[in-house]
Design brief:
The complex is a heterodimer of chains A (665) and B (295).
Chain A (H helix, E strand, L loop, with lengths): L3 E6 L11 H8 L5 E7 L5 H14 L3 E6 L2 H14 L7 E5 L11 H20 L7 E4 L3 E5 L3 H12 L3 E5 L14 E2 L4 E2 H14 L3 E4 L2 E9 L2 E8 L14 H5 L5 E2 L8 E2 L2 E2 L11 E2 L5 H5 L4 H5 L12 E7 L1 E4 L3 E3 L25 E3 H8 L20 E8 L15 H15 L4 E6 L9 H10 L4 E4 L2 E7 L2 E8 L4 E7 L1 E6 L1 E3 L3 H8 L26 E3 L9 H19 L3 E4 L4 E3 L9 H5 L5 E7 L5 E8 L9 H5 L5 E3 L4 H10 L1
Parallel strand pairs in A: 1-2, 1-3, 3-4, 6-7, 6-18, 7-10, 18-29, 20-27, 21-22, 21-27, 22-23
Antiparallel strand pairs in A: 5-30, 8-9, 11-12, 12-17, 13-14, 15-16, 19-28, 24-25, 25-26, 31-34, 32-33
Helix pairs in contact in A: 1-4, 2-3, 4-17, 5-6, 5-14, 10-11, 11-12
Chain B lengths: L6 E6 L9 H13 L2 E5 L8 H7 L1 H15 L5 E4 L2 H16 L1 H11 L9 E3 H17 L8 E4 L22 H8 L3 E2 L13 H4 L1 H17 L4 E4 L2 H9 L1 H8 L7 E3 H8 L4 H4 L9 H6 L4
Parallel strand pairs in B: 1-2, 1-3, 3-4, 5-6, 5-7, 7-8
Helix pairs in contact in B: 1-12, 2-3, 3-4, 3-5, 4-5, 6-7, 9-11
Classes of the chains: A alpha/beta (665), B alpha/beta (295).
The complex binds iron/sulfur cluster (2 copies).
Chain lengths: 665, 295
Amino acid sequence: MSRIGVFICHCGENISRTVDVERVAAQVGTLPGVAFSTDYKYMCSDPGQGLLKKAIQEQRLSHVVVAACSPRMHEKTFRKAVESAGLNPFLCEMANIREHCSWVHEDREEATRKAIEIVGMMVERVKKNRVLPTITVPVTKRSLVIGGGIAGIQAALDIADCGHEVVLVEREPSIGGHMAQLSETFPTLDCSQCIMTPKMVDVANHPKIKLYTYAEIEHVEGYIGNFQVTVRKKARSVDEDKCTGCGVCMTKCPQKKIPNTFDRNLGMRPAIYVPFPQAVPNTPVIDRENCTKFKTGKCGVCQKVCGPGAVDYEQEDQLIVEPVGAIVVATGFDLYSIEEKPKGSPIKGYGEFGHGKIPDVIDGMTFERLASASGPTGGKILRPSDGREPKQIVFIQCVGSRAREKGISYCSKICCMYTAKHTMLYHHKVHDGQAYVFFMDARTPGKSYDEFWRRSIEEEEAVYIRGMVSRLYQKGDKIVVMGSDIAVGVQVEIEADMVVLATAVQPQKGADTLAQKLGISYDKYHFYSEAHAKLRPVECATAGIYLAGACQGPKDIPDTVSQASAAAAKVMTLFAKDKLEREPIVAKVREAGCVGCFYCQKVCPYGAVEEKEIRDRQGNLVKVVAYVNPGVCGGCGTCQATCPSKSVELDGYTDEQIVAMIEAL
Amino acid sequence: MTPKKALNYAYYPGCSLHASAGEYDLSTRELFKKLDIGLTEVPDWFCCGATPAHNVDELLSLSLCAKNLELAEQVEGDLAVACAACFSRLKTAQHVLAESDIKRRQVEKAIDAPVPLTSNVKHLLDILARDLGLEQLEQAVTKPLAGLKVACYYGCLLTRPTDVPNLDCVEAPTIMEDILKAAGAETVAWSHRMECCGANFTLSRPGVVIQLSHAILDSAKEAGADCIMVACPLCHGNLDIRQKEIEGVYNTEYAMPVFYITQLVGLATGLGADKLGLDALIVNPMPLLKEKGLV
Ligand code: SF4
Ligand code: SF4
């Protein structure tokens, strides 16, 4: 016979205002199996918990029901208290009489009756609770960081500085990401390269960081604490150990006319190249698609001129398996392009802006390259079409962002600030030039941000026009920008020499494929989803995988760096223990009943269901059944709801428990 | 070759085609006859309300369109519409009524009949380019419009409003250019393909029309066009009828003939000037057509 203790919380007045807590306590005290019931002002407080512990010992309670707020809030608190009093924590349940009762009702009589029913249900349920042992799994104290932009770099450095090994995987031939492309950064206008390149060097030299550039994630297996990651190291055609980075190969390569993507196609590069002079590692890579040797078999110049003999045309992709305990995803962003969109893409192009056909209509990142001292023009603002200095320049914000009809409804967050910065950079370099900005509204929340934006108007005299641009067209060597000034209610037309579009921030291409490999979820725009928007902003719902930077949503540098450090801190928390304790709320398969349909495997969002062979004593295969890996199971219960033969059940949420609750009603 | 399927349509000319744009009506009927496409005029059709009605009373404008759609049910075939404004209104009404149950019930009460929500409303452009098809069209061409540089003008109504299922890409349509290329003409790339000409402000605010239409004519000329092609009687009115006046106000000369699509395609299929109503155009197209050896 169970001896259940019921504790009714007043929650200050939150509950007791509408629920007669004393009556609830008295009433449930008469239920069969209840040995003790009481009410208290703040159950979660120290004296409240003391009361609970004391009652467990004095009354020799076997189960506990705390009727209070949502279990999301305090289930852990009370289970811990129960545990310290010597009971298994999973013999304690919460009845939610705040969010589910007092907050949503006004009538005291009705609310009280409902509270009694809710508590009664939990009393019946708790009788069926089983003792659940905490699950422990070992932890591999190494981590993987995917993406070598500022987010990945920061996370990798933070983890490595704590003494844990890090494997950093970057898709491009060099780390640095978008930040390495930027000119100056807001709101302090310090040069991006100056603050970025030292960090890049730190990563390369760090004894605890293993750096794979020009590499991609091929395959991920395992679960928190125990992932096996296969990395595809693409053939660079240059031996990293032999190459001294002298660069002779690049100067001698006869192919010189390949658009430089790092410079947003403004400059040219050879077929053997490093993306930019400060690249880390400073080892060139052969772009096999454009290399004459790979296309026709002739040439081979780079191999001949390379002193140390590092060029290797035979090199092949390598697959390397890395065991890690945690993964930080920091794959960053890409910019929406106004080019015509491929058929079937949910995001439409900007036909009215010429589908990107006008050469002097560029995007924000291209402007960054023009303004950057290391860029194709040496930091001079010049038109791509004829190299003239633009005297009238128009910036258009929210291109693609906040445009539901284009398929993106979110705000890209960084454009107000970088456009303000662009107007400043422009004015600093073209003193007699005039900058116009078409904007919907200025969103500049951030330390020193609004001041920065004001400065662009007050000191740099950028003209801000509130309104959208309907279209642009080329007229002679000018670009006519037709828009409206909704503050004054007039149509405006500006003849500009150059137009800069602040295009929407989007996740990197292939973000969805990577998410599927990792088993993490993403939103409709393919930004990765955090476990909880407010309380678990850097964790994925999949345990052991953390997010940093713009892969989770548009972010500026300060936010990205903060989140990267937060993700690193989460990894370190995980690594602080040798064994990982996990809640035992996981699914279990009753093998006798399982018919091996594997519907559960199809629906499990965590990929926790595996196949298990059942053999008889002679070793003959009897059947294949489902097996839930407790390390991976997220305890969502989807499998339980799906299983046609009722053979898989979530511990702590068994059918028996649910039926008991319903019957108590 | 696949055997030709018989094409037959219910024809909704709209008021303009029975009045100021008689040549659009004439050339449409002649061209379709030539192309073996059946057109049967919807009996008892009436004005769709065009631009004024929906500015005054939504229920009225929806009901006018709904009633016309209902009348069109009597004739077999999809509904063929020549005027861009009628087309836009009929499509919009269908879309709005399909989205809103409440409005649909109000309208059905007003017209005392169910609204055909799924019947196909097609602009002539759609019929030529897709139902007949560019290949068939090309085969019907006997006198290609070689050497004629045409500025295809969509105006504001052919592909708008943007949230209604549309004839072609809302921002960068190519359907007119596709048809003209099939007819052997050259099309120019120009900036004001989709700007508004001022539409029916031509009577109430002529100043607006003169300014807007001037920009359109100017841009077509700058792009090196010999003529403009339209698929809407309102556009035609502003660009053709008002052209002299615009020239006077801005002290320039365009002498830019403005054709209906059916007139140009008609020419290409070998129809004579008399069957296309070319003499009804205000800016005389004959010198241009003679120069290019097209008449
Ligand atoms: S546990 Fe259920 S759903 Fe999963 S394989 Fe077995 S029978 Fe199918
Ligand atoms: S409860 Fe079932 S579906 Fe949910 S994570 Fe665990 S195994 Fe997968």
